[in-house]
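Problem: given the chain below (360 residues), write out its structure.
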Amino acid sequence: MTDSPIRFGIIGCADIARKVSRAILLAPNATLSAVASRSIDKAANFAKANGFPPEAKIYGSYDSLLDDPDIDAVYMPLPTSLHLKWAVLTAQKKKHLLTEKPVALNVAEFDEIIKACEENGVQIMDGTMWMHHPRTHKMKEFLQDKDRFGQLKTINSCFSFFTDPDFLKNDIRVKPDLDALGALGDEGWYCVRSILWAADYELPKTATALRGPVLNEAGVILECGASLQWEDGKTATFHCSFLQSLTMNITAIGTYGTLHLTDFVIPYQEHQASYTASAKPGFNELVTGWTPLPSQHTVTTDLPQEVCMVREFAKLVQDIRKNGAKPDKKWATISRKTQLVLDAVKASIDKGFQPVEIVN
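Solution.
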């Protein structure tokens, strides 16, 4: 007997919800069942514009959707400042939670959300889509190859995009009462996650913000960077910005090899993504070139990465509903470590760029 698809409700009609609505429609084990906005007209228009099935329910309040017994899981693309309230309510209503990142404004709020999820037996996952791309798994195989890559030594990650004056004035990501972490929460989350991913989720010992962050008049970060240090000598740096050209780079350097890619958050193309691996490179005899040359690897996928994310989340929910499984703590653990590093970077900025110890 085929498992019933997981019935999703969406609370909030943010732009990113268009992409995830499509992903839910494309996922083989999920279906769009409802959408809610504070304006029922906005919810209805969103459903119409994004191909919701005709039987999907339209709600003019978030509470109404959460009270619907026919909803199994909620996707929450709300501003970060609203996550604590609505994530806790979602869990208390026994709905599984796929939430946009950052999960919370700080780890204290994060822990309240996780506590509610654990008490109510619901699955939580954050919407870091690239984690679910098949390329990510192939790259990890290279990083774990002790002969070709060796021991991880340093990581550099960058995510930036150039925004216009309207964004810098009106977007929720620059409003202190909506998304107070600014570029650090929106883009830095991806950078920190990529660093932790490369380091097998071993937390660094300290984070030190780089001098010269750019803040708007309300004190929200528009651009910043940081260096991270591990007890064993590993190091990492990252940079995130709303003020620079679209860039999505990871470079991970080991004793013998280097991994490099330039589109880690969103691949250049939906159905294929590449990375470059260099293993034990050197110079030719006259030092006029490299040998061996780095190798380029292309990974194809039938489903875009956001669909892979929804499919994985829905699979976990199905296992809970059908087999009585416990929620998988892997994703909450990874999210919490990401949040901890963000907290430390923000604290380092606030403390005049002093090193801040990261305590799990």
